[in-house]
Design a protein that fits this description.
With 241 residues, this protein is mainly alpha-helical. It has helices at 2-19, 24-78, 83-166, 169-179, 203-211; strands spanning 186-190, 193-194, 225-227. The two termini are 16 Å apart. The structure holds zinc ion.
């Protein structure tokens, strides 16, 4: 019973330490999600910019090629033998000129698009930096609390392990099962009542509880493990573990 009381004490201390974090872990998680979203947006925009740059680079080469073809055809036109050939080449040159023009127009449009997207990207990078700062800030707060608690938590966890190994495994299982419903799974009887749910404990049960310290008694109302009212648990008992 002393061990169960000790286990219950350690768990409530650990729960309390956990509460110091408040909603900070959730906040850190949320900030991390924001950061990842901001990064994905920046990556997407960079991808669009790369596509535009590739298009412009290819288009530049194509424009030179079109111009060269046009010049070659113009030279060829001097050497034609009849009107039919002359007309055919004129038609071809017109076609190349038209292609050159429409590609130039598209390049200008893409150039404007690139400028706009670059501006948008700058804003998106600022958003990402802000998200990074916010995440770093919360994470640092979390890490601070964790490092402050580190030694205490380690010590409690070590003692908890020893106690669990010392206890009857059936008791441990029962304790863990109840802990899923009540964080304070083992509570003392106080003024003939369960101090978990405050319902009264029959005096017969209190007598049995006192006479059978090796047996588990559960509160009939809430199902918590009942500890004898006279069981004296002092934190200093943990020092020896
Ligand atoms: Zn109860």
């Amino acid at each position: 019973m002393h061990y169960l009381a000790a286990l219950s004490f350690i768990d409530s201390e650990l729960d309390e330490l956990q509460e110091e974090f408040g909603d900070l872990p959730d906040q850190v998680h949320g900030k991390l999600e924001n950061l990842e979203r901001a990064k994905a947006i920046v990556d997407e925009t960079r991808g669009i910019l790369d596509e535009i740059k590739n298009f412009v680079a290819t288009a530049k080469v194509t424009l030179v090629e079109l111009k060269e073809k046009e010049e070659a055809l113009a030279k060829q036109q001097f050497l034609v033998r009849n009107n039919k050939e002359f007309d055919a080449i004129t038609k071809e040159i017109d076609h190349l000129k038209h292609e050159h023009e429409s590609l130039s127009t598209r390049m200008r449009t893409e150039g404007l698009k690139e400028e706009n997207i670059n501006r948008i990207l700058l804003d998106q990078i600022k958003d990402q930096e802000k998200a990074q700062e916010e995440y770093d800030d919360r994470k640092a707060m979390l890490d601070n609390i964790a490092s402050d608690q580190n030694d205490t938590v380690k010590d409690y966890n070590r003692k908890r392990k020893t106690i669990v190994l010392t206890l009857d495994q059936d008791y441990v299982q029962e304790y863990e099962r109840i802990r899923k419903f009540h964080k304070d799974a083992a509570v003392q009887v106080r003024k003939n009542s369960c101090s978990g749910c405050f319902s009264s404990v029959p005096s017969q049960k209190i007598v049995e509880l006192r006479n059978n310290p090796e047996k588990l008694f559960l509160c009939e109302n809430c199902g918590r493990i009942l500890l004898d009212e006279e069981l004296y648990f002092d934190e200093s008992l943990l020092d020896n573990i």
